[in-house]
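I have been asked to look over a protein record a colleague put together. The record follows directly below this note.
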Amino acid sequence: MEEGLRERKKRETRQRIADIAMGLFLQRGFDNVTVAEVARAADVSVNTVFNYFRTKEDLFLDRSEETEDLLARVVRERRAGESAVEAVRRDFFEALDAGDWRYGMNEGADLFVQRVRESVALQSRVRMLDVNREDRLARTLAEETDADPDDLTPWLVSAQICAAVRALTRHFAIRQMAGEDPAPIRADIREHAERAFDLLERGVGGYCPRPEPGSLSRPRAGERSTPTPR
């Protein structure tokens, strides 16, 4: 459905407030900027800010919904015959090559991480974001494989995938914060990521493949889909 004018204006206003807030947070630190200062800089009222963002932390983490749903979405939208790990691997390298923000390997990610480390409130929210991301991925894996309610496999697989992504993201952030240029870091991260995803492939690589066109049923845990005879 095409976005209406009212919805578009609301989205643009929200993005403008978030962009202005992030500029202030990165410049001065999260705890050193008030919501009132963000409102003044954005030329809106404090109430307007809170109409779009429930908390000050939401202003900083304005993409939290996208971040929490990222891995689950990648799995939901995986290609025919592609397993969960294969889908995440492909998306990770696409983001890495493009310098996209979604895995935290973009220009300026180091300052973002530094601001999180300076704020106890942000650290708490980021930890919860990680928990929610892992839970969403696990629930998606459970749905996609028709897992039994007492089957822990989706949660075990989700934990392994999320742990690998966290380790790679953390390594990138540490080196970028040490002053290294992002380009050579990304080249090294590619090697680390290849090894990480190879390990995942050997362990859980056959888990949750999307059925090929013509497949009779959705494969269960660890099974590859088999096309019906033509």
